[in-house]
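Researcher: For the annotation table, I need structure tokens for ADP-ribosylation factor. Please keep the output clean. Sequence:
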Amino acid sequence: MGLVTILKKSKRKEKELRILLLGLDAAGKTTVAKQLLQQDVTDVGPTFGFDIHTVEYRDFKIHIWDIGGQESLRSYWKNYFESTDGIIWVVDIADRDRLSDCVTQLHKTLQDERLVGAPLLVLANKLDRNPGVDREKLVKTFELETLCDRPWNIYLCSALYDSQVIVQGLSWLLEDIAEKNFLYA
Ligand code: G3D
């Protein structure tokens, strides 16, 4: 079932969704958000604090909370967890030195009770800089199969160069959220 089908089936007039966009600093979160907004991705700067990007698909209004990933800001992430419908976790797969830190941060974040059940989309970004990476290996590295309390998926992308995979990932996330919250309401 595609995004359009979901939208056609939806019954409520306006649906607002809150999506958290998280990951370590420089993973490509703002680039992902800009691709979704069809904005210039060559002009991104570091996010200090947070930005809210609103993407509209017909009667869906999706508020994407782009939260700064610097170490000093991570303790504040929890302030944004309330009423989250879904999580997009962006990882720089070329940043091998921080991969294990990224995995630790992801699982630490998912432990928060306010995020229980929220579907997780992992965007394995900067594929152009690590083209040989294997999806199944990433699933293992990120211990995604241990996540029994939520739907998850992982898409490999190069946010700087291509929006298609990101849109596919977002569609997957919306499908899951819509099925739970709207179609069977
Ligand atoms: P953040 O919001 O997670 O902190 P940004 O990350 O979106 O600000 O991106 C950090 C840097 O990574 C940016 O480069 C951006 O252009 C680059 N980037 C994002 N996605 C990709 C990608 O798919 N491939 C490559 N090669 N680079 C990417 P600068 O130079 O502005 O720091």
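Researcher: And a one-line annotation?
Model: Residues 164-183 form the longest helix (20 residues).
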